[in-house]
Amino acid sequence: MKRVAAIVLVLLLAACGKQDDSAWLGYAEGDTAFVAAPQAGWVARLAVQRGDAVKQGQLLFTLDDTSQASARDQVVGAIALAEGQMREAQASLELTHKELVRQGGLLRANAGTKQNYDVAKANYDQSAARVAQIAAQAAQARAALANASYQLSERDVIARTSGRVEDIFFRAGEYAPAMTPVVAILPPQNVYVRFFVPESQFAQIKLGQKVSIRCDGCAPGITATIAFIAQQEEFTPPVIFSIGSREKLVFKIEARAPGGLKLNPGQPVQVRPR
User: Fewer beta carbons within 10 Å, N or C terminal of the chain?
Assistant: First the structure.
């Protein structure tokens, strides 16, 4: 809201000065990326401040991870237990296999009994089933570990795009609900101009058309391409009121450039067709 108020003030002051009636009035705008916490939690650390330039992959903030670390440690313990059980089960399987082979040899030599062989076979099958059961449990625990590790990693929220930190909505010590923005980033490629064309000149506008952009203190030769044309007309927005335009019906137009425009959101601009 403060930024909007500042925009209104700047543009109203600009309107009081000399106007170029041949130009379309507008302002720079930006599509902000709102970075939310994928999980709810207390903000343990804020790694950026408003105005910072961040790069993709940079840490933005960290949520308290006590519960997630505990869950991971429990799974790690379950895997260690399963590994110990597997060693015992494999040793038992090896012994029962040797006994089965021995009883089979005795039975073929008519030195043993079928009953002893059947007991050895049952013991071997039971040991083999135990090994398979523990292996399945270990596989399940490893999958749980992967998920627990991922949940833990999600407590460190990184930037998925580069840009400037525009706003911070939660700070260290505050509770951030899941899917609620914590940090707002403005990628430079998301900066564009929004301007308003009078109804009488609307027929000149086409998608893909090139326009020239001028503003106070800007480098010359800024160009953009019209990427959006409103389908309905509206009265001139209050932020660009001037003596000559306040009663006019206009169409909202947006123009963009590859990589974005080197303008600051809210900056007044004058736009002309090329």
Answer: N
CATH number assigned to the domain with residue range 1-31+187-274, chosen from the 4 options 3.10.350.10, 1.10.8.60, 3.40.50.2300, 2.40.30.170: 2.40.30.170
- Tokens representing residue 225 in the block: 């391409």
Please provide the average confidence, as pLDDT, over all residues in the chain.
Answer: 88
Check whether domain 66-153 has CATH 1.10.287.470, yes or no? yes
- The partner residues of 253 in beta bridges, in order of sequence, read 195, 229
CB 188 within 8 Å of CB 163: yes
- What pLDDT score does 199 carry? 86
Q: What is the pTM of this model?
A: 0.72
- Which residues are CB-neighbours of 11 under 8 A, at least 6 positions away? 27, 239, 240, 268
Degrees (nearest 5) of the Cα angle 176, 182, 186? 170
